[in-house]
Amino acid sequence: MSRAMQEPVVPRGGVFAAAALALFALTAATTVRLTGIGEVRMTLPAAVDSRDLRFEDGKGGTVLVYDAKDHQLVDTLAPGSNGFIRVVLRGLARERKLGDIGAQPPFRLTRFVNGQITLTDTSTGKQIDLDAFGSSNTEAFARLINLRGDPQ
Q: Residue 151 pLDDT > 50, yes or no?
């Protein structure tokens, strides 16, 4: 009373088709990478305004925003406010920590002709297109470009 276990049979044509598809995808990706043919690149328009900023932890959960050029206090972000700015900076700070980079190199906030705003970590080259997160989140950073003075 023994039954022979029968394994499922995969059609030979299906195996060849899957292998051919994988080989084609690998060849196409390699060709684009090596020759640039078919590659799509996003080029940013001209920059209208730019500002290098440094962010430091203050007392009681505040975040102090300094102009990197003259180390003048630009803004103080109160605890529990500006959640989007805090999340973005936390992510960039994590990358710096993994790369054993300190907090000294500034972040560059740039506004372009078309209104697009990016935040670039000058130490790692990582660039974040802030417009991708919606206008209210973009505006949280945009106001820091033109903010002047010692807010206290």
A: no
